[in-house]
Write a structure and sequence with these properties.
It contains 13 helices and ten strands. The protein is of the alpha/beta class. It has an eight-stranded parallel barrel, surrounded by six helices. The relative contact order is 0.13.
Amino acid sequence: MDCPSPSSRSTNLKFEVAISAILIAVFSISCASAPAPHPFPRPFEVIAHRGASAYAPENTIPAFEKAFELGVVDVELDIQLSQDDQVILFHDTELARKTGHPGRVRDHDAAVLLEMEIGTWFDRTHPEVDENFAGTRLNTLAALFEKFGKRFFYHVELKSNDVELARFALTQIDAYGLRGHVRFTSFLFEQVERVHALAPDIPAGLLVRDAARLRREAGGAEDALLIPLQKRAVDLVKSSGFDQVAFASEDLSPELVRYAAEVGLEIRAWRIRSDEDMHRAISLGANGMTTNWPDRLIRALLEDKRSK
């Protein structure tokens, strides 16, 4: 028997349907015979960054399996197109650092990419993880959907500026009936705009560059201009019809979070490097965050609840 699916998060419902990921997980994961996760203290999205990527190679099936084991419903993933237009899960612009192969994802057919492995890189850079992942290969968006279906809510980051990426991703989403289980995000405004035009029913969010990048792009703006620059990004998201804006955790401020809430946007934190970053984003009122350590974020939320 199929598990019931988590609640759809459409743009029409905004905060009212920002149901706690853990409360959803209690319902949906339990029917898959997984341990029931802890209840959330308030609506909040615990988003496993590239899967539970502190514990298994990012954007691979083992990383998403680990996220599922931890009781997480929301997962973030990065997508790019292969030379033969297959949607591949991969983060970096270049393949070399993590796979040892030259070029970009778009330079190779899927058959070649799916023979590349990322596990050796993970083992080398995560010596604290006991399990060995050598041989873990790259994979496709279709393979992820095939394995997990509606058991996850997918935060799909459009990683490249390929104009066809959104269309091919939507084809896979529709093939697996997942329109109610997906949000699109990107640092590339044109990509979010493009996918929102193709599928306005799917929630969309803009990832805003960090403060240093915003200042550089504004010609070396002074610190006093940071909040206006951030508010300008919030205004752009709102006027474009997106429902979420995301900032680096260290760039969040009470004024910025309050401003996003006042215009009706969810605000999400990215670049979580420590438990302190988690606690700070929670205390400022973020609606969710991507993290490599979703179990630690659950613990931080519970600690935050107990301290009040």
